[in-house]
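Board notes (copied after class):
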Amino acid sequence: MMNRRLRWLLAALWLGGLAGVGLIGAPVAFATVPEKMLAAAVASKGFYLMAIASIVLGVAITVLERWRGPTARMDADQLLPLAGVFFAVLGEFGVVPHLLQAAVTHSPQAGLWHGLASLVYALQALCVAAYVWRLPGRAD
């Protein structure tokens, strides 16, 4: 029971952090900082810190899932947090460098990279939300 509560708490922190940065932190940065590139730097730092937190929380949840009862094959309760970690790494270290380069050079592809970064971030949040949704109804 304690393990389930800890997993739920970590997942709730992860999902709340994603929502806080994506729905509050970044929009507020762009709404209050007059220079667009400075606002982007502030928002980017928030997304970077959330990516690091996502990796730590996702790995911790996966380890706790394995302690719950290791099986020969991975189930959705182990794959969903790992998928969230995958999307965090893909977004921060695969997509964001291209987005930043396109923004700095005023490339017409900046919008494409921004859309892709938003999609990857949303997929990460969807994985975590699905995990949170599944957790209370399971028998451990």
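Comment from the instructor: Residues 36-68 form the longest helix (33 residues). Helices lie at 2-32, 36-68, 76-104, 110-134.
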